Every structure is written in structure tokens, then in C-alpha cells.
Amino acid sequence: MVTNFFDFIGGDKGIWEVVSMDTLCGQRLDNVSNIDILQSSATEENYGVWTLKGFTSNIRYAEKLEREQLISVQSELGRQKATCAALIPIRKTETWWTMAQDERRKIFETNSHHTQTGLKYLPAIARKLYHCRDIGQPFDFLTWFEYAPEDSNAFEDLVISLRQTEEWLYVDREIDIRLIKA
């Protein structure tokens, strides 16, 4: 069965070894040594300390030209040289979610330039967004990034740039988990 639902399982086994786990705001997650990413299935095999569930969807908040730009330059996940990764679960405030779509778009792109900022780091940094707010998870998004060790500084620049925007004023829970392929 093909599914667009995924489980990020934090525990003592998995293909990604945790290098660091930093709680930037909100409640922390229990520390783990590894993370595994599996397509969700009907069977609930839970072998980790925690499991975060998310699903892939269409690109949201991006206008047609931005979407075309993203698709034309982004890399696929799983590249052999991309042995570094980051899982950054994020939850936004209720104030964010009570805004109309056009108000969120204005903050997201017009004021914060989220898509344009991300485009500067493609294709070196591959990314995928998993949605979880609508399925009762403790985060709204699971952001996943993969990159080669030589692109680590570029990744740091990317997250610093995004965290300095107006959009990040609406983040009330964020965990930054850095990983290397085990």
C-alpha cells in the first residue's frame, strides 16, 4: 500500500544517528540516539521513545511562479552524498492559525520571504515538509532537510535567516534535531 503518511521514530535504532537535539522553544522531546523514518502502515509497531507522524501534501503558500521555481531546482531526498540531515518539528501559535490565509501568506512570503530564502539554498539542501496539525499531532509541521557535510554552513545560514523573520514570531514550539547517516 502506497501512503503519503510517515512516522519519524525516535529511539535507539534507526538509519539516522542524532548528533544534537536542541529545544528552541516550547516543550522538549525526550532525547534519543537515532531516528528512523518509515511510511506509516496499518500496523502500529512502536519501538521508539516517541513517534511523530506527518503527511506530504501539495506545496502551500507558494504562488505559481514560486512553485515552478522550487520544483525546477530542488533535489530529491536520499542522495548518496547527503549524509547530514535535520528534523525540525515546529508548532505555530493559535494567533497564526486564526489569521485568514491571505494574512498568513503576507507574513510568510511578502514580509518574511520564506520561499525566496529557501530557493537560495537549493539544490544543495534537499527538503520535504510533512503536515501534522490536521491529524492531531503535537506539532504543525515536521521539516526535514538533507545535505552533504560541505553544505553544513549553508544550512546554518538558512535556518538562521528564517528564524530572524516575522514568521518565526508565531512559532511557539521548535525542536532542532541534527543527524548523520548511521
Note down, in words, how this protein is organized.
- The chain contains five helices and eight strands.
- It is an alpha+beta fold.
- It starts with a strand and ends with a strand.
Question: What is this structure, in a nutshell?
Answer:
This protein is of the alpha+beta class and 182 residues long. Helix content is 24%, strand content 34%.
The shape, in one word, is globular
Q: Which blocks of ≥5 consecutive residues have pLDDT under 50? A: none
User: Strand order within the widest sheet?
Assistant: 4-1-3-2-8-5-7-6
C-alpha Rg (nearest Å): 16 Å
Q: Kindly estimate the percentage of residues that lie in beta strands according to DSSP.
A: 25-35%
Q: First CA to last CA: what distance?
A: 27 Å
Let me know the number of strands. 8
Instruction: Tell me which CATH architecture of the domain at 57-181 applies here.
Output: 2-Layer Sandwich
Order of helices and strands: EEEEHEHHHEEHE
> What is the name of the CATH topology of the domain at 57-181?
Alpha-Beta Plaits
In percent, how helical is the residue content? 10-25%
The CATH C-level name of the domain at 57-181 is Alpha Beta
> Number of helical runs?
5
Structural class: alpha+beta
Mean pLDDT: 90
- Major sheet: size, sense and barrel closure? 8 strands, antiparallel
Key structural traits:
alpha+beta, 8 strands, single chain, Alpha-Beta Plaits, 8-stranded antiparallel β-sheet
